[in-house]
């Protein structure tokens, strides 16, 4: 990168931290530190919710998925708007009315301390590990692209977030979310425009869409139901609904964001806005990857997008085989460009047979390139059997470094760092909330001096950062990183969601029944993960359904001699 | 048991149910657009 790009990158990082510290000053008690004084308006709530979910992985992996796999990943988010409505109707008013800091506090009032502890423990395990992946995923890609040591990149990413999260707590997190998310969105829009502007003369955006369609990249909707297919309409609507309901209804990372709203209405509006714009936003980010794919129909892509791995192979004992594959790819890519131009010429001339002929030639080229990629992967595995042969996460940044103008490169990297800081800071704040409210204060009781709770919260934030950075060291070789995060969440979310749904909607079920049901359900989900090929999107439904059904059954067996505790749920 | 729906009305559209309907309509439009894109291939 040029000196200008480095300057922009580091100036932006410093600005994010200083802004966070400045906006977070003045917290006086635990409500200020953990929930920003419950004083946020809905636009801040909305952006904070979106920034928390859209981690750096979103902006690295999603364009790569668009490039490699088309638009089909968008279906994963179809359940989100429906989940927003359910959360607005149930969790938001209940949590606000009870004045809780965390979602798990509610469970003690509804069931018992044991159930609260179980849910809080599942959250701390899952989110603590996920925080490590949230740091590691972008650190790995950034370290490879920038030539940095991955461990120090993890330390930098965690270190940037912890400064203002420790200093200003939730208020700092929310305000920095707004600044960073707006910069990220603006950068992505500029990048998208520049990708389209980089297409050869005579190739319009409509032509680009035509090429993408003929290459099968506009596959945004799959109606055929297949439980083993991760992305289709039904898995997105049903499985995605339960995943998003679990995430927004029971994960403190999100609960902590919308509880910063100054009223039920402000929190609800933030979530409704997320429901309106999230799916189109994901579609746009995937489309960015598809646009990069079209760009590479007219330019030579690298044989493998991971530059470190490529350089290692090219300089190693398999260098001759590597260069032979590069030469073979260059020949096929040149032929493909000729065929794509012929396809567009046929389109402009309304020459259907010509378009069909060019399309068939492009399909042959695609098969040839797939074979070359297969041999490339085999070469990488032959050198290192444990090597990751997926280069999806490197596609977008490799394109940025090669083809975007000076200045914008630094801005894109700053945006990726900002996205990482966004999700990490929210996770750290949520882990701190749960640790202090659901563990420490249950043992020691509320402090007479409110500053003591704030001090303990700051210590917890630093401790969780150290844990996350430490775990990041071990989070390698997890395949597609965004999927790793989602799979990890799915292992626990269903059970936690089941506990909350029973709490909200089944007032006759009591603590012992739901606690036993949750243990069995969690074992069932882990067995599904270990022993079956069922897509992870369905784990949420399985875990949730198992808790609800088993809790009802166990409650029936135990008998309902005594009335349930006050069911602080909706009517 | 409380009634969580009883809260101040939203500043837009007057009722929460209308806002939720808007979210569903928005989702249906996006799905329809995705279907249209898929048919282009």
Structural account:
The complex is a heterodimer of chains A (571) and B (41). With 571 residues, chain A is mainly alpha-helical. Chain A has 22 helices and no strands. Chain A has helices spanning 3-23, 30-35, 42-53, 56-69, 80-89, 91-98, 103-110, 113-146, 150-197, 205-214, 233-250, 252-258, 264-295, 307-315, 319-348, 352-383, 395-403, 408-444, 450-472, 481-505, 511-531, 537-558. Chain A is globular. Chain B is an all-alpha fold and 41 residues long. Helices cover 61% and strands 0% of the residues of chain B. Chain B contains one helix and no strands. Chain B has one helix at 16-40. The radius of gyration of chain B is 16 Å and the shape is rod-shaped. Chain B starts with 15 loop residues before the first helix and ends with a helix. Classes of the chains: A mainly alpha (571), B mainly alpha (41). Chain A binds chain B through residues 71, 74-75, 78, 81-82, 84-85, 88-90, 92-94, 97, 209-210, 213-214, 216-222, 233, 263-265, 268-269, 272, 275-276, 279-280, 283, 507, 567-571, and chain B through 1-5, 7-11, 16, 19-20, 22-24, 26-27, 30-31, 33-35, 37-38, 40-41.
Give the SSE map:
The complex is a heterodimer of chains A (571) and B (41).
Chain A: H1 3-23, H2 30-35, H3 42-53, H4 56-69, H5 80-89, H6 91-98, H7 103-110, H8 113-146, H9 150-197, H10 205-214, H11 233-250, H12 252-258, H13 264-295, H14 307-315, H15 319-348, H16 352-383, H17 395-403, H18 408-444, H19 450-472, H20 481-505, H21 511-531, H22 537-558
Helix pairs in contact in A: 1-9, 1-18, 3-9, 3-12, 3-13, 3-18, 4-13, 4-18, 5-11, 5-13, 7-8, 8-9, 8-18, 8-19, 8-20, 9-13, 9-18, 9-19, 10-13, 11-12, 11-20, 11-22, 12-18, 15-16, 18-19, 20-21, 20-22, 21-22
Chain B: H1 16-40
